[in-house]
Amino acid sequence: MTAIAPPVAGAHRIRARSDERRRGWVRRAPLLPALVFTIIITQLPFLVTLYYSLESWSLVRPGSQHFVGFANYAQVFEDSQFRTTALNTVIMTVGTVLIAMVLGVLLALLLDRKFLGRGVVRTLLITPFLIMPVGAALLWKTTMFDPTFGIVNYIFRPFGIGKFDWVGSFPLGSVMIEMIWQWTPFMMLLVLAGLQSQPKDILEAASCDGARPFAIFRELTLPHLRRYIELGVVLGAIYVVNDFDAVYMMTQGGPGISSANLPFYIYQRAFLGFQVGQAAAMGVVVVVATIIVATFALRLIFTSFSGTEQAA
């Protein structure tokens, strides 16, 4: 009888897959310390937060910690103040991001043109994004919106507006103005990068064909900027929804909770109301809601990028 030859092709495939897995682990090995560090500083605290969200624990009552299950989550959805601060957060995030994006697009269109002193103007426009959030909030509260010595009142004094308390009268709007001022440069940089990556020959061809500037912007430039605008909106919303500095430094969430957002309200429940379990449950709800919204938004962006690449 003749001997059956071993399956050489199958052995080669198994060896090739093994070598590929080995090379994959070699490529990933330098990233493992960073991955372990990220898990330790992010996921472990979140697991502790999940545990505390199932407990009833008041810091001013020693020995009050005990298991209550999902009672804290039920109280979160029954809390009218939580719903108010959630609405404030939505208004603050949507209004800040959209207005900052519109201003960013306008400023990017300005800086995309050549004019004398463009480098200086670009540097000055980027500066607000480089200021620490706490410093920016104090700047607007004490220098811009101060009732007696504020620059805003000085500008509007010829129009009959004297010592007007902007922060006290419009707390949510004042916080939003400060955040728009700080986030507009970020949007401007993203849109400016998109404008400078647009092929100039297409714009010149459209101009030679007699297309007006607004038509060129609507039909060519704006579709090209779509993915940059979507990326700026998502990144801006992720950061703005977690903003704590501006609310804390400018209004302390007041009057009442009229200008409080979710991060500040959670801080109040944990460190002023000393209700650790309720604050932890609120934090978990906010994180889950943010992850859901961010997942859909990022999927939209990735679809836009992949669609653009396939079309190209």
In words, what does this structure look like?
It is a single chain. The protein is mostly helical and 312 residues long. The protein folds into 2 domains: 8-45; 76-311, MetI-like (MetI-like fold, Orthogonal Bundle). 75% of the residues lie in helices and 1% in strands. The chain has 14 helices and 2 strands, in the order ααββαααααααααααα. The chain has helices at residues 8-28, 32-53, 71-78, 80-111, 118-130, 133-144, 151-156, 166-169, 171-196, 200-208, 213-240, 245-250, 262-272, 276-311; strands spanning 55-56, 66-67. It has a two-stranded antiparallel sheet with strand order 1-2. The protein is flat and about 75 Å long. The N and C termini lie far apart (61 Å). The model has no long low-confidence stretch (mean pLDDT 84).
Summary, kept brief:
This protein is an all-alpha fold and 312 residues long.
List its traits:
mainly alpha, two-stranded antiparallel ribbon, 312 residues, 75% helix, MetI-like fold, flat, 2 domains
What's the structural domain tally?
Answer: 2
Q: What is the CATH architecture term of the largest domain? A: Orthogonal Bundle
Distance between the termini: 61 Å
Please mark out the parts with pLDDT under 50 across 5 or more consecutive residues, or reply none. Answer: none
Count of alpha and pi helical runs: 14
How many extended strands? 2
Per CATH, the class of the largest domain reads Mainly Alpha
CATH superfamily of the largest domain: MetI-like
User: What general form does the structure show?
Assistant: flat
Structural class assignment: mainly alpha
How much is the average pLDDT?
84
User: What name does CATH use for the topology of the largest domain?
Assistant: MetI-like fold
Helix content: over 70%
Strand order of the largest sheet: 1-2
- Largest β-sheet summary: 2 strands, antiparallel
Give the H and E element order.
Answer: HHEEHHHHHHHHHHHH
